[in-house]
Amino acid sequence: MAGAECRRPPAPGEDVKPFTPEKTKEIVMSLQQPAVFCNMVGDWPALHWNAKHLSAVLDGKTIQFRLGLKTVDLVPQFETKCNYVKATLEEFLAWSCGQPSCLSGPFSCYEYSKYWAYADYKYIARIFEDKPEIFQDIRWSDFGFPGRSGKESTLWIGSEGANTPCHLDSYGCNLVLQVQGRKRWHLFPPGDTSFLYPTRIPYEESSIFSRVNVANPDLKRFPEFRNTTAHVVTLSPGQVLLVPRHWWHYVESIDPITVSINSWIELDADHEARVEEAITRMLVCAIKSAENPSDGDLWLNPTEVEATSHEINLQYLNKAVSAYFKCQKASVSEQARSSSAGAEQRTSASCKRKKREVGCEPEGCRLLTHEFGFSTFTAEKLQKIPFGPHLIQVLPQAQETSSMGAVAVESDARDLLHENEGGHFGKLHCTRKQLVMSNDCETPVHQMDSDSSPNASQTALSTNDLLDCLVNPHVINLVARLLLERTRV
């Protein structure tokens, strides 16, 4: 049961949390499906970080906002298609309230009824560099990560409609605290990757985007999207969402003002992922840089400063390979020390597991727990997770629910996620072979003529078509493994 661990009695007025830091970390590092933590951050000063408070703290400092249209199109509104302005939070709040002062400010060209604004990916260590004491308002130590604070966190401030295109993060798992307003999360398991038509254009290290606008999917162009298994949840203030490794997510603000704070938790599997990302960077930069600049293809995401040279990319690849083998060696040494510890350690598997999670593993080589996809997380393991009012599963969306529907998690967690039948849009379980064969390089059935040859409009492949096949996550994973094997010899 949650909260059954031995702990000291709480002091008068002290916030009592449902899980100890050790138990919370065990959940975070082992759970391979999204879940919402409730009643874990009631004493965090960061809960007061609403937009008005942050405006006062920043005291006129400008930050960059991304602006997009509220109209829903069939294609994703990537960051390369958005507009950007630099403004203060005070100006942002005035614009969102429709104040006349906005007629001449940085938002003057953007009518609130037609646009949303998003200050996303704002590294707290950077925007509050002159106020380091504020870092301690965020206490990820309660989740089992001592020393992790706002310095290792990112801030997101948006207006209604602000969204992040559907993507997966190559590195780590993600903890997201909702501070102000509500956000709706559409999550898809790693096994849905081929159904989401992955692309690396626009290119951004560690982000693999989907070509599908999951809010309004073009099923004629992307028919395999019907086979996805959507997990949709509305996150409210005071709740923390766990996004496991390689889960796809599309996120939208559904209240006038939203504020979120997140932190990416490093995992052992990140070392191999960095090799994959280094290979991807080399391919994308080499091929796209060779194109005629006059083509006007905005292939580099605004979060990337510039297209790096082949020499720099090769250095990055070699550093990633070196770090991978260094971690492998450290892991082998740690296993050898663990096996020589004797019968006392072997007789208590649960204690051994807990010690590893508290920090006995080498620095930077922590818990390779998210190596496999959602389907490998067995029902037996799932039953050991203490789900209940303080930890709520984000279940698959019922088939009859609309694509934009969601289940809200009440702030006091009394209304758990509705028990549904686990319905989904198509196949839930696919073998690895099926996923590899069903990638976006294949021509959909409806685009084939009776003689099984592609339509004329499909025969002219673009550079992006070639790139999408070359840097398909499955291909990159195979190349990374072959390269590591070659280096090992």
Summarize the model shown.
The protein has 489 residues and is of the alpha+beta class. The chain has helices spanning 21-30, 51-58, 89-96, 124-127, 270-289, 310-339, 343-346, 349-360, 379-383, 432-437, 456-459, 463-470, 473-488; strands at 35-37, 63-69, 83-87, 115-123, 154-159, 163-169, 173-180, 183-188, 198-199, 207-210, 231-235, 240-243, 248-253, 257-265, 391-393, 407-408.
Structure description:
This protein has helices at residues 21-30, 51-58, 89-96, 124-127, 270-289, 310-339, 343-346, 349-360, 379-383, 432-437, 456-459, 463-470, 473-488; strands at 35-37, 63-69, 83-87, 115-123, 154-159, 163-169, 173-180, 183-188, 198-199, 207-210, 231-235, 240-243, 248-253, 257-265, 391-393, 407-408. By secondary structure, it is of the alpha+beta class. The strands form two sheets. A nine-stranded antiparallel β-sheet has the order 3-2-4-5-14-7-12-1-15. A seven-stranded mixed β-sheet has the order 9-10-6-13-8-11-16, with no helix packed on it. Helix 5 (270-289) packs antiparallel against helix 6 and helix 5 packs across helix 13 (473-488). The protein is globular. Mean pLDDT is 81; it is low at 1-8, 345-376, 399-404 and 411-458.
The mean pLDDT is 81
Task: Name the helix and strand elements from N-terminus to C-terminus, one letter apiece.
Answer: HEHEEHEHEEEEEEEEEEHHHHHEEHHHH
Rough shape?
Answer: globular
Tell me the span between the first and last alpha carbons: 49 Å
Low-confidence stretches: 1-8, 345-376, 399-404, 411-458
State the total count of DSSP E strands. Answer: 16
Described by strand count, sense and barrel closure, the largest sheet is:
9 strands, antiparallel
Strand coverage percent? 15-25%
